[in-house]
Each structure stands twice: as C-alpha cells, then as structure tokens.
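Q: Structure for this?
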Amino acid sequence: MSRYDKLPDDELATLLQQGDELAYTEIYYRYHAALYIHVFNKLRNREESRDIVHDLFSQVWQNRTTIAIHGSLASYLFAAVRYRVFDLIDRNQVKTKYIDSIRKFAEESTVHADDRIREQQLLALVEKEIASLPPKMRQVFELSRKGGLSHRQIAAELNLSEKTVKKQVSNSLKILRSKLGVTVFTIFFL
Amino acid sequence: MENQEIEALLKKYRKGSATAAEKALLESWYLQQDTDGIQSLSPGELEEDLISIGDDLPLKRAVVRRLNWWPRVAAAILIISFSGYFYWHHAHDNSGSARLVTHSAPAGKQQISLPDGSRVWVNTGSKLNWPGTFNKNIREVYLEGEAYFDVKHNAALPFVIHTGSVTTTVLGTAFNIRQDLKHHTVTVTVERGKVGVSNGTRRLGILLPDQQLSFNTDNRQVTQQRVDASLVIAWHKIDLNFDDMTLADVALQLEQHYHVRISFSNEQIGRSRFTGATLTGEKLEDVLQAICEFNQATYRVLPDHSIMISGKGRN
C-alpha cells in the first residue's frame, strides 16, 4: 500500500525480481549516487567509475529474474561494484599504480583471514564516505538519491554552472514538456 | 610480495578461487583505500556524472512521473479511504453528511452526471460514492458493484475509481468496472482510451480498447483477455429489462416510463409472457411493435391517446 520510495530494500528487491521497472528505478535512485561516490573514491577516475556503476545497473536489469541476492540489497550492490573494481584493476593497461598500492599494503599490514569485508563494516564505510562530502556535493547526492526532482531543478536549486544546466535541459524538458509530468509532480509532492 | 604475485592474486580473486587469506588481503586494501577522493570533483562534475550513469538504462524517469503516480496516488487515497471512506460512508448513511454523495441503484439503473462532465451509469444493486466535489488534483469515486464510466478527458486531473482494493486510474476514456463479491473478482473492461489498474502499489495492468482484466481479490491472480467491449457494456444502454414478465407487468413499466396508458383487449393476452429489453431512447412504437410481433398481437392508439393491445396471446 505504500509508495515505492517508502518501500524497504528487500521488498524492492523482490519486486525487481518480478520485473517491476518502477522498483528498479527506485533502487537506481536510492543507490546510484552512493555507489558512484564509493567507486570514485577507489579509482579517482570519472569515466571508469561512471562505467562501473552504469554497467552494474544495466546488468541488474538484464539479470533481474535470475539475480540471487543473499543478504541485503545494499551489500549485494556494494559487493558487485567491488568485484567490478578489481576486475577493472586487473584488466587495466596501467595497473601498476594499483598493484604497487596493494603490494605496499601487503607489506605494511598484518591481515587475518577473517578480515574479509563484513556488511556492517562496508555500510559504515559508505556512510562515512557520504558524511565526508562537502555540503554542496552532499546536496547533489541527497537530491539525486530522491530522484523525484528533475535535474533542472537540482541545478537551479544548487546554482550549478550553465554548462551543467544545458546538459540537463534535454532531460528535464522531456519531463516538463508533458503537462501530465508536471501534474503528477505536484501530486507527488502533495 | 612481488608485483606478479599480486597480479596472480587479482586473477584468482576474479575467478573466485582466492583463499580466505587472499581475499582478506585484497578486501582490506580495498576498504582502506582513501575515502575522500570524491572531494576532487566539483558539485557540477558530480552532478554530470550522476546524470550520465542513467543514460540508456531502462529507468522509468519520465514515465515514472506518468505511471508511478497511480500507486502513489492510490496509496495516498487508500489511506484516506480506509479512514475516510468508512467515515464518509457511514456518516452519509447515518446522518446524511455532505462529505460523501451516494448514488445507489437498488432497483433499476441510474445515470449520474458528475460536475467535470463525466457520466456514470450505475447498474442495478450497485452503488457509487463520491465526495460531492472534486478537488483540484484528482477526481476520485468509490464503486461497489458494477458501473460504466464515460470519463471526460482531462490530462491534468486523473480520474480514480476505487473498487474494494482495486484502483482504476484514467485520464479520459470509457470503460466498465464490475465487482463480483461472490466470486471475489473485480473486472475492468475498456471500450475507449487507456486505463491503468492497480492493487495497492501492485500494477495489475494497462488496458487498451477491447481488453479486459480480472483481478481475484482472494488469490490475487490477474487474468487479461480480449473481449468485445460493446457486449460487456451493453447493459448500460438497456433502458427497460423484461425478464420473463407477463405483458400486463410489461405494460405497467411501459406506462410509467413513457407516461401512457396501456390496456388489453382481453385478459389472456395480458397473461402472455415476454422477455426482452429496450435500449435508451428507443421509441414506444418500436417497443410495442416488438412486443406485438412476438405475441402475435397488434396495437392501436385510441382517441384518448391510450394504447390498446389486442390478440389472442400465445396461450
């Protein structure tokens, strides 16, 4: 009986497995920004980070019916990008940078076999990553997480560059051009 | 550890054949990788990246607005309706509160014109409730039983019909909803336009003309099929329905409906039985002619404008 944005993750995951596009969309808006920030922190490369998150969501939709989510949806998504990060590192032409870093880490630290990533630990880390965002970026993150605002509104609200706004116009217009979109928008924010 | 070893380790990790210790090493490294690299991006760059991640994904962005509103609206309304509907319903029944207007058709159909120009034909034994005025965001009504809707198009003002737990949302179209309490089904049949049907947040389907959706409220199964909508909605056009009635009773109904007096040349023909229906707007002469043909009778208009049916009757 509740709205998609009020549904808990596990219900969204179930709906996704049934092919519910709206559940998929909600999952996307709930997580794409946090995942992107998380991946960018690892790779410091915009294009690679964008691709990883984009490909993940593309795969999630393609495999929606066969997807096996053990544990929470969040840990599934973050584990999936982690594998993709290692994938990318391994396939990377210039992976020396990462390999050096891993080697240095291996030399300096004592790691126990049970030091594997635990869900709570990972989610706490992501929380920390988001908490450390500068205020403006936090706003972008929060607004895009809600997904209900058009990007034009986000841009206007955050006073972003004209170039950014321009890039968003085609997107936003699609929404705003249809009267219905506007109406529904109003209903949404009743 | 040599670089080659780390490369080999990465390959093992990707293949899923790394040992627990090896996984722990990589994942620990991953965790402690700097967590504020994102600071090197400007808000505008982050915004750009977040937009482009969505490119070509099957997101219901524009459509979210378009379609997602019915679960949203339905949810909002259902919350109101659970408290409000019963309140209004009972308030109306008990005290005639102005909050909810009830049109029930205990015997015979009723045609209702709503202030937005929409028309609703409520079938016999069915009930339509609505708040008396529509608010500026939505047109909503509550149906028990069967009704045929001809909704005035207004893209800015969705028309929502609640039938038990089933929500039907339209912008402007003609369709029929039938709630069968005995078989726990709600059936929506579309004659014209496009109709969305949902149950809570669950989208049951989107129907086009001549499509019919049945939802079983008991086992929550949905069936969809092609039908001839004109047959399903025919009932609303039927004006008078004679189900194996004596001609005397038929005459009584015709008298009331057409404001005429009807008599029989003999009692026997009045006892003949007749089954049939008249369509809205049908002329009395045509109805009489059909009845007479069927019963091998004739009719004539007397000088006082009353009608006399004569014949032997069909035993």
